[in-house]
Amino acid sequence: MAASRFHLLLVLSLTLSLCHFPDTTWAQLRQNYYASSCPKVESIVRGVVQNKIKQTFVTIPATLRLFFHDCFVQGCDASVIVASTATNKAEKDHSDNLSLAGDGFDTVIKAKAAVDATPGCKNKVSCADILAIATRDVIALSGGPSYPVELGRLDGLSSTAASVNGKLPQPTFSLNQLTAMFAANGLSQTDMIALSAAHTVGFSHCSRFAKRIYSFSRKGPIDPTLNRTYAKTLQTLCPKKVDSRIAINMDPNTPRTFDNMYYKNLVQGMGLFTSDQVLFTDPRSKPTVTKWAADSQAFRQAFITAMTKLGRVGVKSGRNGKIRQDCAVLA
User: Fold this and answer.
1) Residue 154: φ, ψ to 5°
2) I need a labelling partner for 176 at 20 to 30 A (CA). Which of 7, 53, 163, 282 fits?
3) Contact present, 295 and 4 (Cβ < 8 Å)
4) What detail does the entry give on cofactor binding (predicted)?
5) Is 129 within any annotated ligand binding site?
């Protein structure tokens, strides 16, 4: 009996230890990982990103969202880029990923081709690392902070639409739901608030927030946490009969600049999604929003920290990954 009890306590102790120690699969990540194998990889990717941005601004929010959606599902392994086949519905075709703009995918695929065309670099750099580099570049090229990217990820060996279920935050999420989802990926509430600033660039379809401006509750059609003037503007831009083709800027003030305007908007009641505005209306997160609305430098540093941690989520190594020749094909 005593031996059985000891065994049970030992199992519980080990289980708790595993729960409290962070994932160390990212230990192989380091700056300048390709210094010997492909030393110019970052400048090659940046050149492709710059050209893509010249073609369309959508490259910036599209690439940023692609990285986030990739890391939160099966880890930062470029599995979101894999195309579906006749026998497998991949991540990118899950309903939560259908709004991902094609320019994000195109940026990674073109950067991969440019890297592989460089003497000595062919099949040396993973799609996952190229996406991480490109994400840093679109942030920096739109006015956000630049930061050293940790590299050394391998590409994932699987991609299924089913793996996306329940892994991505929704526009109606409460602070508790947001905090729990980010915590499941080793990210703190502060990290979550910082990463939410990705909504300072890019667009949203009206259907994602229509309820807030037309049918919020029996007490009134407009969400009371929404700035009234802003709500009327949104009604002008988005007809009550939702048109799926219409998309509007998520940041009504500086939509093409990565800055701390996101937090200034929240203070004014101009968070587009419920999951945005709740960061200011909930007293637990309000002080951080207020601080970063007033202190751009503090926000930028917190964002760098959060992006670095995000880039470590679910990193593949050894037999758990590979370097894909074609980012869209698992084989």
Assistant:
1) -105, 160
2) 163
3) no
4) Binds 1 heme b (iron(II)-protoporphyrin IX) group per subunit. Binds 2 calcium ions per subunit.
5) no
Catalytic position from the list 7, 20, 69, 94: 69
CA-nearest of 86, 246, 102, 92 to 163 is: 92
Residues of the domain holding 48: 27-168+311-320
Q: What gap in Å lies between CA 319 and CA 304, rounded to an integer?
A: 30
- Is 259 known as a binding-site position? yes
Report pLDDT digits (tens) over 190-199.
999 999 999 9
Residues 34 and 149 in one domain: yes
Domain presence at residue 16: no
Counting residues of the chain whose pLDDT is more than 90, the rounded percentage is 89
- Across the chain, what does the average pLDDT equal? 93
Q: Which helix (H) or strand (E) holds 70?
A: helix 59-74
Check which CATH number belongs to the domain holding 158 and give it: 1.10.520.10
Residue 73 annotated in ligand binding: yes
Our answer to whether residue 20 is catalytic in this structure is no
- Whether the per-residue pLDDT at 20 is higher than 50: the answer is no
Q: Compute the average pLDDT of residues 22-30.
A: 71
- Asked if 94 contacts 134 with a C-beta cutoff of 8 angstroms, the reply is no
Q: What is the DSSP string of 112-173?
A: HHHHHTSTTTTTTS-HHHHHHHHHHHHHHHTTS---PPPB--BB-S---GGGGTT-S--TT-
Instruction: Please tell me whether 150 is known to bind a ligand.
Output: no
- CATH number of the domain at 244, please: 1.10.420.10
Q: Residue 187: what residue type?
A: L
Chain segment 82-111, per-residue pLDDT in tens: 999 999 999 999 999 999 999 999 999 999
* Dihedral pair phi/psi, residue 326, rounded to 5°: -120, 120
